[in-house]
Amino acid sequence: MSAYYTLLKREQHADGGCTAYYRSNIHAQGAWNPHEQHMAPATGILCAELEQFMPRDDMRIGRVSLDIFGLIAFGEFSITTRMIRPGKTIELIEAEMCAEGKTCIVARAWKMKTSDTRAIAGLEDLPVENPEYLPDWDGMRCWPGGYIQSIETRAHLDRRAGKGIVWLRNQLEMIKNQATSSFVRLMGMVDTANGVVPRLDPNEGWGFPNLDLQIHLHRLPQGEWLGLEVTQQYGEDGIGLTSGILHDTQGPFGRSEQILTLRQF
């Protein structure tokens, strides 16, 4: 099976951290610039490093916060993962992606101790219609780049500019010759939320790239399909916001936010 990335080597550090060296391929290519990676698979590879760093059976990742420092260069790059705040019930870990001598993305994840709270569980976000009942949708083809070509998309009929529900799936592994967990597979598509209900066609002379991606998870996702229930809003002073409720085929599992810089070409 094809993959977004190839692992070149891995180095362990004396302080417990590690650095992994990767190479991206055409499937990870971005939509804004042919010489950059798309933030979606870049999120996935960072989450793969965060997931496998000092794992504990009694903890899971509850939040991933990613800040984009600049262009995510295509080709070879490194990810250095370290412990920021160890603890018995909560831990903060960090993964820094660097390419061409520059920091591209810094991702921090809160890991939280799990317990049985089924007796008090309750959700306000509602399930949405599953993808098997929806038609294929080619609305993402307005975006260029290898990543967009790698995903299958289906949309609810009431989807419109600024608001709607789109389901995504891909058949690629995140890392060549390694099995991809549901967590990594679905996290590796969340950033696509910024392109599924754009208020403007990307060919109309405006750009709206995001500077961050915040993901909060009230449970771990399952399966291959990611449902994005998205609202996109533009302010009057050059700043916008893309907000999403995240679904898998079992129901909602979390939320995402992306702050946007609105720019006229």
From TrEMBL:
Pfam families: 4HBT_3, 4HBT_3C. Residues 133-260 form the Acyl-CoA thioesterase-like C-terminal domain. InterPro entries: ACOT8-like_C, Acyl-CoA_hotdog, HotDog_dom_sf, TesB_ACOT8-like_N. It comes from the Bacteria. Residues 30-111 form the Acyl-CoA thioesterase-like N-terminal HotDog domain. This is Thioesterase-like superfamily protein. It comes from Acinetobacter kookii.
